[in-house]
Amino acid sequence: MTNNIVRILNLDNTQNEIEWGKGYHNKFHDVELTNTSLSNVFKKVGYKAVIGIVVTLTELIQKRLMGLFPHINVDCEFSLKIKALWATVINPLYLKSYNFDWEYYDENRILTPYATNWYILKFIVRSYVRSSYYIYEYPVNLSLLARHIMPNKKLFDSWFAATLYKTAKVFPCTYDYAALDSSYNGAKYDCSTDVPVPREFFFDTEFEYSKKAAKHALNVFLKSLDYNNNPWLCTSEEMLEKGFKGTPYTI
Fold it and tell me: What is the DSSP letter of 23?
């Protein structure tokens, strides 16, 4: 993880306790948990970029929680999933399954924020892979979860607002939600024309976005992947069978 983002959010060596207990898991994944202004911002962001934001939040949540639940091997449990998710930001056909393992408990058998994070992710990524038009709802839940556990909420709010603004500007949604009858749950969002988003766009404050810079970063990342040792990634053959256009694992 790029250290400047960790430093900006004051996550270095932060292991103070968080407010968490029985019932918090249900609170943060509840479909009734809403934030209209945040939902409206997410509606302005392209689908691939929305997934980029939620994977970024997942990494930050992971960093924030490190040391608080030492019985959970973070690297073993999450690193391969996160790599697969960043590949999914490039193209949903990279992902083999969105049925993430998520039942991570603490020593008192209370579901941890890790569990809530991955439970919410399952619904977000399922909507994305299925091209569901309504992808913006659960990212609100994940955003509120991340904010809840951050050591400095003002720093998080400032960073998150700036991130959403620049993401909507560079990777705008190409659909008009207001033009769609909200009762039509079968509407599809074709993200095939969405521009793929490199991880550096979110994590490296010195990264200057351009198509050339993004292509280089994405190719470097894709070449680092090994689907033979990552059960969450499809093989090249599987991707082509699912209809992938071009050469898998390259831009």
Answer: T
3-state class (DSSP) for residue 247: coil
Alpha-carbon separation of residue 2 from 6, 86, 180, 223 (angstroms): 7, 15, 39, 19
Query: pLDDT (tens digit, 9 = 90+) per residue, 63-73?
Result: 999 888 999 99
Residue partners of 188: CB distance under 8 A and separation at least 6: 131, 132, 133
Taking a C-beta distance cutoff of 8 angstroms, is the pair 143, 160 a contact? yes
With vertex at residue 54, the alpha carbon angle to CA 28 and CA 52, rounded to the nearest 5 degrees, is 170
Q: Is this model's pTM higher than 0.70 or not?
A: yes
Q: Which amino acid is at 16?
A: N
Measure the CA–CA gap between 139 and 49, rounded to whole angstroms: 12
SS3 203: helix
Rounded CA-CA distance 244/54 in Å is 24
